Amino acid sequence: MRTINGISYRTKEDLEGSCVGLEQYQPGQPSVKDLFIRVTSGTSGTQPTVLVVSFAEVKKNILAKGRRLFAEPLLVVLPRNLSSVQWVQLFFDPAAESSRILFLSRRELEHPLLAKIIDEFQPRHVFSTVSLFDFLLDTLATRNGLSGLAAVERLFITGETLSHTVKQKFEALVPEAAIEMSYGISEVGGGVGAYCATLYKRHPDSFGRAYHPLLPLSIVEPDENGVGEIALTTRELGPYLTGDAGRLVAEPCACGATETLFVEGRINYDIVHCVGATFHAALVEKIFASLREYVEDYYLEIREVQGEGKTLGFVACTVVPTAKLRAMKNGVEYVCEFLEKNLQITKTQSLGDLVRVDIFMKPFITYAEILPKSVKYIRMRKVD
Amino acid sequence: MDRERAFMKVVYEGDVPRLLARTRKDIEEADCGRIMYQRPLVFFGSAQESVEKGLWLYTKNILPLIAEEHVDITCMAAVRYGIDAIVGDFESLRKIAVAIPRYPDLAKVAYLVVADMRDEPGCSKFLKQAFPAATLQRIPLCEP
Prior knowledge:
Chain A is 27% helix and 31% strand. Chain A is of the alpha/beta class. In chain B, the strands form 2 sheets. Chain B has a 5-stranded parallel sheet, with helices on both faces. Chain B has a two-stranded antiparallel sheet with strand order 1-2.
């Protein structure tokens, strides 16, 4: 817990290994229809948090702001089966104007006849995360199967930040689709910030960054520019610190909203998402702590690059070598191999595992005498 | 059939996928056994099947925990949720049984609702040994 200005906020660490919100569950009661289970977990086998989340209040928002979501044949491609059941259950809500829904699990995504499934369904709306939709496009493109997405009018995208490279790729491969991004965190079902087309007309450079809040939000400990940590309040979590940085501006919008949230990344750069993998600053720090004899200091730049027919992850690592590392003939290879072998970036795979299956390029290690002052407190950053 | 609102389930004939439209009524009327439990884990080899059975439980006002691809994540979440039943196919139950030494609380589940179980006596015996406190209930085979 962190207490700021007299308010006690929960953080992600407080939730680890617990079950939150279960007291809301009354088996056999109609209220169950609005409850969902969400499971959040870290990269390297940290204990998951199980949250029983009520949608009774936010459902109105979801069905109002996202009314179009279910109105046309909707393809759902999400990383968790629990999220899929949540969206299919919402799809069947009497208040939703629904048509047909199809979700793809890993089995379908990896199936050689994936294009046949999508062709048969002919989605007009797609709801997915940046990395999974990118993976879907790569897979379909290599099999000449993009025609199944020809009728797609809207892409509802959530999850990681949409880099310029990946956005251009989406626009090129699904040219008829309007891209709508929403902002959410895994501890909250139904989203935290909603897309608004009018908003992007007013702030044209803020696509994927500016949203209308769907929940009561505040900014704690703002700096001189008004940027601080985004805090929200839900029934299950109470006051909660998201770990994301943002700025909240009071401004009336033509859509009726009165506030705009600008999301500015992580508050302490502790997490970077890239092609479906997650880099945790704490794990990176642990790796370099084991290399203390060889590396005095380090800085990672993580980016998405366009490879042959697919998006690849790339890590450029600048290290300040010790005398011992400088004296080694194969020092660069040593650091590279150590990083590949030990840096866990998915629940089950290391960086090296993803290099071997061509999801990441081999890390690029360079030596520096000293790190730039600008990276003094930041050891890891996503670059576009 | 309510053509306006359907969950398109991917089913496999052999290894060839096709779409099967399932309305809420189809799902609600399926025979998935008697509900003697409150916190079920739903775990089928096919996530499509898990989601459909999860929807069936919703129609009975029971909150399901749907299994994820990663067995350890599923088991850890199941322990946190305090599951009292597992609804699944035999192969998925076997995966949980293998994980029980790491998650001993899962051996305490009170109900196993098993679809697609082969008739060999070895299957029942295996489940009885792995989940000694559980009452076994068989449900009809899943649709193709």
